[in-house]
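Protocol step 4 of 5: obtain the predicted structure for the target chain.
Materials: sequence only (see below). No template structures provided, no constraints applied. The aim of this step is simply to have a reference model before the mutagenesis design in step 5. Sequence pasted as it appears in the construct record:
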Amino acid sequence: MSLSNTLSGVANTVLCGTSPVTSVFVKSVLLPNQNVKISGFWNDSGFPDNEINGLRRVGGSFEDVLKEPDCDFIFLCHSPQVQFKLIRSLYLHRNTANSNKISKPPVVVLIPPVSPCYDLDTLLDCGPPVRIAMPLRKLFPVSLLANHLKQSCVEKPLDSVRNASSLPPHWSLGVPRSFHARLSVTSSVKPGSYSWLCEPGVMGGGLINLYGAGLIDLAFILTGGLKLTSVNCVSRVFDWKLTGDQSCIRRTSAEDYVVITGELEPNECDAYFGAGASVAVFCLSSELPPLNSIDGSDPLEDFRLNIELVGSSGRFVISEQGNQISWTPIKPLYSRAGTTEMLNNATTVSENENLSLAVKNKSVNELQNGDSNSFAHQLPLANGSGNANQCDSDHDWPSTHSNPLVSITAVSHNTEVATLSTKTFNLDSESKTDSNPAHPHPLRLAWSHWLSHLASCVQPDRTKLNMDTLLATPEHWIYVQQVLTALEKSARLRSWVDVVTGERV
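Step 4 output (structure tokens):
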């Protein structure tokens, strides 16, 4: 990694390969970004790709790509079989006498989906660092909620001022009780040739392989690090021995679906009070895209993720529209006036003239009373904006994006809703690729958010931010891989499976 690139805040990257299931990332990384520079493109097949016309072609083998000058990151966008083949080649050549040691090798980033069949020894001991991207962490409502939950657990003086959350301070979760995620997508796999998605035990579009790792990771992040201990998976199952046709029913079948039920490890409060363990439920469904799409729409245009997180103090819901977070207390608040007064006090603190100059210059939360574009039956509480200077936060907003305005409104049954306004986002480049620029693709926004954070990791003034918030560490991927393996076995056995041992429960 060159010092000049680091000081300028630009991350030099090389794009390797393309595939239908990574098309959203490829389109996102090719958008103009002042912090990420694509210095070249390499493809193992050697065939040209229309999506990357204009990029410099990098020749030679994959080992030669690692020797690219001033390269910070290498994005592997190939299918999982090709990804494994390339990583395997690095593993086999790591100790050869003729291999040249690279003093500062770039970080090899595997773009999901990643096959759970990877040999962990290969990932951990192949020479250059290999990590796996986790883009669902950077979906805007997920990032906002994760930041809020983290800040509410920190017990440091003045943290409420220095790292204020964009959500109201009285929005609390308490002890996690249940996590429920429902994902509805349009399958990106076109009917035709055989694909790695067609694996024994999983039918249709392979939703577990496509989005399973990301959803398992979200459950871990939002519950404060609770892991799944046992799982039960119900999905379309196909017996590959019944036919040798590689374009059989699994390619032309109806909707794909997966229902996963899991038990989370008990936390300290559950163990102390003798309460039962928390649970997690995942519901995934997809529809096949039109066979003849004449409108040129994005095959992944439909991406609707709904998350419900219930704790001992409150219930959070992220709507499938991707722009709202609602909170309902377990016990009703004393009065709506008290809630409004609490938010007004937060406003007074953030704008108090007696605060030190250093704190005022940080523009802590910029909460201010004002009107809200809510319906007549809703009570506007406050408007807020995310803090762009949260250097100590793992899930802060990137400085390269305009911060989303967060308006808080009160609805019936003690429920309050935070609405994220995307009007402040810079969508000039997005509108060139999205079929509906008014509602940009949530995954593309998440990847843009993710790329901006990745670039900030190489800047000296952001050394406190490490890549563990963006990339799965080897230890974390071991856990995710164990869950994915248990899910595949549970789908075949139609029974509960222990995540650690892999045995039937």
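Step 4 remarks: The chain has three domains: 3-133, 134-174+313-425, 175-312+473-498. The first helix runs from residue 3 to 8.
Proceed to step 5.
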